[in-house]
Amino acid sequence: MSQSFSLVDSLAVSDLQTYLSRAARVEEGSVRLIGGSGVLAVYSAILYPRGLLDQTPTVLGLRTFAIQPGVAFDAVVPIRSLLDRIARIGESVSAGTVPDGPIEVRMPLEVSTVTWAGISPPRGGWRPVGETQHSLLAETAKTGIAEVAEAVPTGLGEQLVQRVRAEVWGRPIDGLEYIPAGAAFAAESLGFLAADEPVTILETGPWTRLTTKRGHILVRRQAWTLRA
Fold first, then answer.
1. pLDDT tens digit string along 42-85?
2. Separation CA 142–CA 184 (nearest Å)
3. Which residues are paired to 219 by β-bridges?
4. pLDDT(223) > 60
5. Residue ranges of domains in the chain
6. In this predicted model, what pLDDT tens digit does every residue of 91-116 receive, in sequence order?
7. Of 72, 124, 193, 218, which cross-links 36 as Cys (Cβ 3.0–4.6 Å)?
8. Helices 181-189 + 158-170 axis angle, to 10
9. Closest C-alpha to 82, from 37, 141, 28
10. Which CATH architecture has domain 4-118?
11. Rounded CA separation 159/53 (Å)
């Protein structure tokens, strides 16, 4: 397996750094990197269940980047370690010590205890089922964030915090069948929403995808919500 990948230029490095930084503010754990056929897919976990009785929906963020062909890998790495490496690359770019063109990024050591990374959204087979507006998702996220903040005072135990988050972010978005509010939270937190830009909704199997020009939100639906 390849231990590195090359992004096309410094702008792509900066773009990846921004995405990872936003993801780390929500869940400072790990990211899954899948490379192949000249494309890097970067999955970040925004919400996921922490136990058998946890009803938190599985909501992942996804950004893709062009990389050099001829490499293939599937690795889960600490998001903070990857950010540190990218920051050092940025410093080198600013200092003028990195030549124009593709920029190599060395991957940190892998981790193997990330439960959500074992859930793999499909690459193909997606079919469009509708669209929604950024304003609905942004308002849903804003309302949910305020509700969680009000319901979770300082010092509350982790188990109770998770229960509140599961309740708030597991509710369906008004007018969007089977899409939890957590999808709106993810899209807003990762910076995927933009004014006057519609959000396309696609489905395949148990997965729903919300897509904008800035990235994708993937939601694994509960079994009882699957369409016949």
1. 999 999 988 777 788 999 999 999 999 999 999 999 999 999 99
2. 9
3. 59, 208
4. no
5. 4-118, 127-225
6. 888 887 877 789 999 999 999 878 89
7. 72
8. 100
9. 28
10. Roll (3.10)
11. 11
Q: Which residue has the tokens 């509010």?
A: 181
As a whole number of angstroms, the distance between CA 148 and CA 42 comes to 27
Do the bridges between strand 103-106 and strand 73-78 make them parallel or antiparallel, or are there none, so unpaired?
unpaired
Residue 79: count of CB within 10 angstroms of its CB: 21
Q: What is the pTM of this model?
A: 0.93
Chain position carrying tokens 């729903």: 208
DSSP structure string for the chain: --SEEEESSHHHHHHHHHHHHHHHHH--SEEEEEEETTEEEEEEEEE--SSTT----EEEEEEEEEB-TT--EEEEEEHHHHHHHHHHHHHHHHHT-S-SS-EEEEPPPP----SGGG----SS--EEEEEE-HHHHHHHHHHHHHHHHHH--TT--HHHHHHHHHHHHHSBPTTSTT-BHHHHHHHHHTT---TT--EEEEEETTEEEEEETTEEEEEE--GGG---
Chain position carrying tokens 């997606």: 126
> How would you classify residue 205: left for phi > 0, otherwise alpha for psi between -120 and 50, otherwise beta?
left
Taking the C-alpha atoms of residue 132 and residue 179, their distance in angstroms, rounded to an integer, is 11
User: Length of the chain in residues, anyone?
Assistant: 228
In order, the DSSP letters of 123-181 are SS--EEEEEE-HHHHHHHHHHHHHHHHHH--TT--HHHHHHHHHHHHHSBPTTSTT-BH
